[in-house]
Amino acid sequence: MKTDALRRPFHVMVKPMGARCNLECRYCYYLEKERAFYPGRGVPRMDDATLENFIRDHIASQPADAPEITFAWQGGEPTLLGLETFRRIVSWQKHYGPGRVINNALQTNGTLLTDEWGEFLHAEKFLVGISIDGPRALHDAYRLDSGGRPTWDRVMEGLRVLRRHRVEFNTLTVVHRRNCRHPREVYDFLVQSGARHLQFIPLIERRAEERDLAQGLDHAAPGDPHRPPVPAVESEFFASAQSLPPGRYGQFLRTMFDHWARRDVGRVFVQQFESALSAWMGHGPTVCAHTRKCGRAFALEHDGELYACDHYVYPGFSLGNIGRASLATLANGAATDRFGAAKEHLPSRCLACPVRFACNGDCPKHRFVRAGEGEPPVSYLCGDYGRFFRHIGPVMDRMVALLRAGRSPAEIMRRPLNTPPAGFA
């Protein structure tokens, strides 16, 4: 039965190929997860029956007055599912959602895109996210194929396919130990490549073996993400070799923000900056790492198991299988509520922080640094975000004042960044 309580909006990140990918990026945590938790199951792939069931259920589970329904296809590499399967996906969407506005977003490494893909993606109005870490040397530092070969040229050819067929796209960049020292170079490259919507993901991976991580998670209560999967640590040396050193992500964001704010406000949209502006406007952050609670952005694995978050796709954290329960039931169950509420369990330093409204303690996945005796752990990026949000505060105040005066935030480009918000003559 679908009551109003079971029809609250939610987002699902679908992984139809699980962790299967044609690349082996040196920082990819997902391939190790597949080896550790799905051994001996053959090549992961969501079968047609599960795909059709998901599409039908996802449309039925959304509120009747929802203006749009979005399907987000990720991986691994989702284009490995094949173009003909995506044609069937679109036909099922049209069959089960007549009269509804249905959008599709596809996150891809771009290396398998062809003109046939480009024609399809344009015709069906897909929004495509291209994973690219910057110019050639910075991208190829870690984004290699299974033979250890660089991938930048193939990604750029995929990007040209999208531009040639006028497919709307954005970029997703992993900020890692190599490219974190070149924020302006990375930003300028992406914008010069035609991107106008940019996302940046900080690489923070622990050095623990996956089997140790799994053991720790098995002992944590499902839906309790504030509990670290392994004991809290004191220093950076527990992060992987590709992970960001402490302080670097904050510097990356600050330098990029100043560069953007002097030249591209209203022309280029950076997810982290848009989220911060929403927080300063009093609407709350829009990036899930900084929302007050978790729990409305789910991950669906190729076997039909639904998880409350892509970072917690581990045994013991499944909310259930869509073959046995409806999406709406799983998305609004008690385990989901516990998972979301657990994010608010913060150490005292977070509770007293003046930029908590914009940060909210960061993603629970990153909370593994000891905060004090008897305290829950703090994010590895605590200092980075604290310095970043304090740095952008004066400019955000000016943007808010402009918006509330019915003017464009782009007007900040007419004045030095450090001028006060009052007046705006």
Written description of the protein model:
By secondary structure, the protein is an alpha/beta fold. Helix content is 36%, strand content 12%. The protein has 15 helices and twelve strands. The chain has helices at residues 29-37, 48-61, 83-96, 115-123, 136-139, 152-164, 183-192, 210-218, 248-261, 271-280, 327-331, 334-342, 348-351, 356-359, 382-404, and strands at residues 11-14, 69-73, 102-108, 127-131, 169-175, 197-202, 269-270, 297-300, 305-307, 318-321, 367-369, 378-379. The strands form two sheets. A ten-stranded mixed β-sheet has the order 7-6-5-4-3-2-1-8-9-10. The longest helix has 23 residues, at 382-404. The N and C termini lie far apart (57 Å). Mean pLDDT is 88; it is low at 1-5, 208-223 and 225-231.
Condensed summary:
With 425 residues, the protein is an alpha/beta fold. It is built from 15 helices and twelve strands.
Write the layout of secondary structure elements.
Layout lengths: L10 E4 L14 H9 L10 H14 L7 E5 L9 H14 L5 E7 L6 H9 L3 E5 L4 H4 L12 H13 L4 E7 L7 H10 L4 E6 L7 H9 L29 H14 L7 E2 H10 L16 E4 L4 E3 L10 E4 L5 H5 L2 H9 L5 H4 L4 H4 L7 E3 L8 E2 L2 H23 L21
Parallel strand pairs: 1-2, 1-8, 2-3, 3-4, 4-5, 5-6, 6-7
Antiparallel strand pairs: 8-9, 9-10, 11-12
Helix pairs in contact: 2-3, 9-15
Indicate the percent of residues in helices: 25-40%
User: Sheet bearing the most strands, described?
Assistant: 10 strands, mixed
Parts with pLDDT < 50 across at least 5 consecutive residues: 1-5, 208-223, 225-231
Q: How many beta strands in the DSSP annotation?
A: 12
Structural class: alpha/beta
Strand content: 5-15%
Q: Spatial order of the strands in the main sheet? A: 7-6-5-4-3-2-1-8-9-10
**Gyration radius, to the nearest Å?**
21 Å
Mean pLDDT: 88
Q: Overall 3D geometry?
A: globular
State the order of secondary-structure elements, H for helix, E for strand.
EHHEHEHEHHEHEHHEHEEEHHHHEEH
Q: Terminal Cα separation, in Å?
A: 57 Å
Number of helices: 15
